[in-house]
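Researcher: Quick sanity check before group meeting.
Model: Go ahead. Protein one:
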Amino acid sequence: MSSKLSFFAELQRRHVYKVGAMYCVAGWLLVQVVTQVLPIFDISFPVQRLLVLAVVAGFPVALVLSWLFDITPQGIVRTADVPDGGETPAAIRQRRRADRRLSAMLVATLFAAAVYFGIDKMGLLAAPASATAASAKKSIAVLPFANLSDDKANAYFAEGMQDEILTHLAKVGALKVISRTSTQQYAANPGNLSEIAKQLGASNILEGSVQKSGDAVHVNVQLIEAATDSHLWAETYNRKLNDVFGVEGEVAQTIARTLNAELNGAELAQMAAAPTNHGEAYDAYLHGLSYSLHPDPGGENSAQAIAAFEQAVRLDSGFALAWARLSREHSYIYFYHDASGGHRDAAAAALAQARQLSADLAETRVAEGFYRYWVEKDIRRAKAVFEQVQAQYPNNEDAFFALAAIARRQGRWDEARNLYQHGLDLIRKSFRRTAQN
């Protein structure tokens, strides 16, 4: 580089400023198109994220290339340094022509971005009717499972199986899953499925029943298209207690395939993994889950849930899902009922076990978010965790309500309102306890 030009003047001579500005505008426009168009074709979220990251990573590459090379009538050539005697008149004219071309391209790119922005603000970028209809066909509500056991005390088992199937389905980004808090108001096996589906905003209904007798478990599930009342799929599972814990993942995978909802590698891995191989530990976990799903003002159900989850991890110390739930219950009691060191330390210890066993498990990350929020009062870290959960699992209502509560506490009222509204779209009828924060 000639000493006659400063570094910034050299940046200008090599068109680095304009290339950078044009790349930023074009990159922003590309990202908008990617996030708007690819979901119509059921392109999974991880693929969209990779494309966006590729656009971001390309920015420094574009700057380096603009510094090193010029586009001339003779093709792409290496940019020459300014000679000691200064640029020749021909070189100056060539550089000015290139500068005008880049200016015209930048103006055109800005115009395209402005047009897109205006169209988007006017609401003219709604998905085509065919795409909307296709997306609607992938919406599902899991109704309460009927308890057919002779011992009515086994109702917890049916409730736990239903919630675990729903939780597995909620991890499928290509599905719209109506939350449990919306569906729990309905009876098992109701007659007016089309009306219920309309109220819930779901095109498909999953019904089921569970019968538990000793160590034998009988699970029956059927997937129904609400508009036509036609059975899309049905299956009966007869398992022993020590072999029942894989049913939820099998059901969720089959439903996803039936509704043509593509599963990515992470979703498949979480569904295929058995949470435990210990039947009694799984039974204790479902006991705890049943208590956890019904929080009460005095915290008695949470205490019962803790006892059940503790029994589950005593029976199987490698039960990551139970450790995550145990941490979450201790965090909940610490925040709402008993801010003592015992619950704080127990929540931290259980979370550490869950993270060591399965840090990527959705329930582990949710438990971490609540620990950061309820126990550590670290709003920034809690927000970051829940944002990650929200991005990877868009059906996770806990993440939306936790983020809404955080936004409200920080005085970001518009954001809080939008998040609450999205959460309400997920649960439609009622709030979970995180909305009380």
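Researcher: Fine. The other one?
Model: Protein two, sequence then structure:
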Amino acid sequence: MINNRISPSEISLTKKDFMSDQMVKWCPGCGAHAILKAVENVFPEIGYKKENFMFVSGIGCSSRFPYYLNTYGIHGIHGRAAAIATGVKVSNPGLSVWIATGDGDSMAIGGNHFIHVIRRNLDVNILLFNNRIYGLTKGQYSPTTPIGSITKTSPHGTIEHPFVTAGLVMGAQGTFFARVLDSDIKMMSEVMSEAARHDGTSVVEILQNCIIFADKAHSLVTDRELKEDYQVHLKHGEPMLYGKNREKGIQLKGTKLQGVVVGLNGVEMEDILIHDQYEKNPGIHRMLGKMEPPDLPMALGVIRSAEYETYDDMVEIQVESAKETSEIKCMDDLLNSEETFEIK
């Protein structure tokens, strides 16, 4: 649903309206190219005036995004995109604010800002490019690099346990979390549209391929021979089915999720879990977000979309209340309030 505080466009916009004239300097084959195309597809459909879109970024390959999209934008400093976006949104609620960030930018130096913008539930949209590596600075391991990976800064294999993005978002009381692949522009576009409609902080984790420093980092999920068994595409109100013939499903057994085959060991279709992305209790959403091959397929699509009050709405309410109840209505009132001091 379009935000009624953001002005709708009076004319129909197209993809070309959002295409920048700047040379795109990502490496050939980088998944970021597909992410850019998805955003160009989605923005005309959202329906806001072009000048009401705002992109904020930090530092990293992903953070070049504001240059490559014909909207207003701020290329900030490392890890501080969420802080900048907070100031932008609170000072101007009439903007649709988007953040482009990477796994290093958001969850290492920017980790504190990341969890708190989620906790506050500010109405912004975060596109998190997760390539499991630091690409711009030439291949150091990041907070999401799998344990044991050989990188420029872990020549004997990293010994750090990586973040699971979904777990971090849910732990920070996130209201919207989705996961998509950079190779699926259609799903990316659909999920970004849902993120835009969500009133609150939306986090879309995009499993992105860095062809230079972490090629095939997500191959277990994206490999053509394996993907049917290692991907479960979530749709609200539909059973969680996967497999080449959709013969497999996710079942809740006690307090754990497990993969089962419909028709075997007494498993019937009604035993398969139905996805409810709007459930306020994040319990099932946490479990779905943490599923990983080879034990279970990876959940793709919108995992969680719960409605809660937003930070920017509550700030506006407080400001209006203060205006109504304060005796000071203008600068003259302040200067004559006896709440001033004189420097001699």
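Researcher: One line on it for the slide.
Model: The chain has a mean pLDDT of 95.
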